[in-house]
Write a structure and sequence with these properties.
single chain; alpha/beta; three-stranded parallel beta sheet; elongated; 9 strands; 223 residues; six-stranded parallel beta sheet
């Protein structure tokens, strides 16, 4: 097509990369002038595992508009959308409901902590294939009435401002946009120590990091 240059951006990896993943990336890299990774761990994976030429792999960390995602007063819009009193404490996440995000871990952790925090609810902002499974899990754990699925929210900054804690339990991340947005709005963040997230939270000095898959540690961090 006469395109003078091809640039590819790698935003993250699957929960479990297929066995042919590195070879496919290596093949694609031969036809790409520059590959941009959004975190240092992704850069390392592309060079060390996929064996792309180091000179053509670059790191550009994601960013957000800090004027749009600025701290502000609680709007009450999210609680109103869910039919909740405005004084409920809301633990929430903003992400697609997909296996790599491991929201099932957050449901389990919330269920463990729920009895200690009778004034708290859990909110999943977003849509995805796991919506029904997560609802069934909440029902099985006895917290269905306190786990809410408002669906997609077009204007997310007010939703962030209405949360009290932001949680992201992913199996894998590049540089999470939702963690950046939550931090920008002043939310305390609890997240699994995967991908670029430890860098965003300065190794745990700017938020709480927990091991991936550890529901007990996540519950304690929510506490």
């Amino acid at each position: 097509a006469g395109v003078p240059g091809v640039v590819h951006t790698v935003h993250g990896l699957h929960e479990q990369e297929p066995w042919y993943g590195p070879a496919l990336k290596r093949w694609a890299g031969r036809h790409t002038d520059a590959t941009v990774a959004v975190s240092a761990p992704l850069h390392d994976y592309l060079v060390r595992v996929a064996r792309l030429p180091a000179g053509r792999v670059h790191t550009v960390i994601n960013g957000v508009d800090v004027r749009r995602f600025a701290p502000g007063p609680r709007t009450g819009a999210l609680a109103a959308r869910l039919g909740l009193p405005n004084d409920r404490r809301l633990v929430g996440t903003v992400a697609r409901l997909a296996p790599v995000k491991n929201q099932a871990l957050l449901v389990e952790a919330f269920a463990r902590a729920a009895a200690r925090h009778p004034d708290a609810d859990l909110v999943f902002v977003g849509t995805g294939e796991l919506r029904e499974a997560l609802g069934a899990q909440a029902a099985a754990l006895g917290v269905a009435g306190r786990v809410h699925f408002p669906g997609a929210v077009a204007d997310t900054p007010p939703a962030y401002r209405d949360l009290d804690v932001f949680a992201l339990p992913s199996f894998a991340e590049g540089t999470s946009m939702s963690v950046l947005e939550a931090m920008s709005t002043g939310l305390p963040v609890v997240a699994t120590a995967v991908g670029g997230t430890p860098h965003l939270l300065d190794g745990g000095r700017c938020g709480l990091l927990v091991p991936s898959g550890d529901a007990g540690a996540l519950a304690a961090a929510l506490d």
